[in-house]
Structures are given as C-alpha cells and as structure tokens.
C-alpha cells in the first residue's frame, strides 16, 4: 500500500498542475481566437493592415444582428438573450432536410452582419459568416460584399478539413483573388454565384478547384444557402432598400 501512495500523490500533483495551467491560459486562448476571427473578417473585407491596427479597424465596424426566423434586425441585447436561452433549446434549430443544401443540420437563430460605413453613414462593404460541408467536414469562413451588396469583395476560410493540394486550395490566395468583383444575385433576385467545373465563363462563376468537385460543390451550396432566403438574403434586401431610400 505504501508503495502506491507516492505514485498516487504524484498523479494528483500533476493533475492539479495541468488544471491550473489550463485555467491560466484559457483567457489567452479565447483572446487569440477572437483576434484571429477579427483578422479574417478584415481580410475578407479586402482591407490590408498590420497586426497592431486590427483593433482600431474593428472599431469602425457596426455589427447588426438578424433573426433568421422573423428576418428582423434585433438588438445586441437580444443576441445575448438568445445565447442565454441555450438551455431552453432556443439558440438554434434543426434545418429541414429539403432546405439544408449546405448540410448544416442545425443553424443558429440569430446571425451577425459586419458593416463598414463612411462618414456619411453610407454602406461601403459588409461581411457575412458562412459555413457548409465540403468533402471531409464543414468549412467555416467569411464572405465580403461591396457597397451594392451584390458584388463580392473577398472571401476567407479560417477552418476546414479539406485535402491539402485539392480542396484545401480554398485558402490559396490566387483562388480567393478571382472572387473579387463576381456577382451574387441574378436579375430575378436569386443566388446565381457558384463554383463551376473548369474555368469560369461569366461574372457569376468561380473557377473550380482541380480534383476537388465535392469541395467546389460545398462552397457553392454554402453561398446559395447563406445568401438565400433561409439566411441573410432577406436582411440584405432590407439594407438595400434602406440605401435606396436614404
């Protein structure tokens, strides 16, 4: 029994050290994740700044929150109310299979829209969170739109499980660059932007990723979903109307 006491005490001591270390670095980890998120949002917006300028640039952003169920804008407080309501299963809901083209399974009820406006309160660009299933898992990113809320300003992916050299090329700077200036909505208001097999032939098409058809389809599906009527589409129409009438 005495021979077991020392190893037991060592195990307990190690567990305590690991627990204390985890708690100590948690704040720093959260801060790093938040900073990385800000970097990707700003990068998607097509703004090139140094690391020390990120916080100041983010202060220029107005974050709007839209309730996808009512297509109404809600207050920041309402956003936190939704977060607090997670125990009541009010934070997200199951996406019906016939509408789940991005294979989300569940979707949050409230989503953010990051808006840049000039001194005259005119919208210059917006950034939307997007995600959808590729080949091996869900891709997470941001899509930026220009002041017309129809042309692409930039795209960034910050997390994915796609195959390096194939679907993993979603983070390739050359491929991301060809998104700029592409159009999203057709004349009827439907989402027309898509990744095609081979080379793009018009302003609604993005060059396909060689050898990565399923990833390309996944990116097309997430754009179609998040920019469509089930997610940010109605909110963007309201912002367009506001711009038109102001």
User: Strands of the largest sheet, in order across it?
Assistant: 2-1-5-6-7-8
The rounded distance between the terminal residues' Cα atoms is 81 Å
Question: What fraction of the residues are assigned to beta strands by DSSP?
Answer: 15-25%
Q: How many strand segments?
A: 10
Sequence stretches where pLDDT stays below 50 over 5 or more residues? 85-89
Secondary-structure element pattern, one letter each: HHEEHEEEEEEHEEHH
Radius of gyration: 21 Å
Total DSSP helices: 6
Domain module tally: 1
Shape: globular
Roughly what percent helix?
25-40%
Class of secondary structure makeup = alpha+beta
Average pLDDT works out at 85
Biggest β-sheet, characterized? Answer: 6 strands, antiparallel
What does this structure look like?
The chain is α+β, with helices and mostly antiparallel strands and 246 residues long. The protein has one domain. Helix content is 36%, strand content 22%. The N and C termini lie far apart (81 Å).
What's the short story on this structure?
By secondary structure, the chain is of the alpha+beta class.
């Amino acid at each position: 029994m005495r021979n077991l006491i020392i190893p037991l005490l060592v195990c307990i001591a190690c567990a305590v050290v690991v627990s204390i270390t985890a708690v100590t670095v948690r704040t720093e980890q959260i801060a790093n994740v938040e900073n990385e998120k800000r970097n990707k949002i700003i990068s998607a917006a097509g703004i090139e700044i140094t690391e020390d300028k990120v916080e100041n640039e983010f202060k220029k952003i107005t974050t709007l929150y839209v309730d996808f169920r009512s297509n109404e804008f809600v207050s920041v407080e309402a956003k936190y109310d939704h977060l607090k309501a997670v125990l009541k299963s009010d934070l997200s809901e199951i996406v019906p299979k016939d509408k789940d083209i991005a294979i989300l399974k569940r979707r949050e009820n409230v989503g953010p829209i990051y808006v840049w406006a000039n001194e005259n309160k005119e919208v210059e660009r917006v950034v939307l969170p997007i995600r959808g299933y590729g080949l091996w898992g869900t891709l997470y990113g941001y899509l930026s739109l220009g002041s017309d809320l129809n042309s692409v300003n930039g795209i960034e992916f910050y997390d994915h499980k796609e195959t390096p050299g194939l679907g993993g090329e979603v983070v390739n700077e050359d491929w991301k660059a060809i998104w700029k200036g592409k159009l999203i909505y057709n004349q009827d208001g439907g989402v027309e932007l898509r990744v095609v097999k081979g080379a793009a032939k018009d302003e609604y098409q993005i060059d396909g990723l060689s050898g990565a058809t399923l990833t390309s389809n996944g990116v097309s599906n997430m754009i179609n979903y998040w920019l469509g009527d089930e997610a940010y589409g109605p909110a963007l129409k309201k912002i367009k109307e506001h711009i038109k009438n102001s």
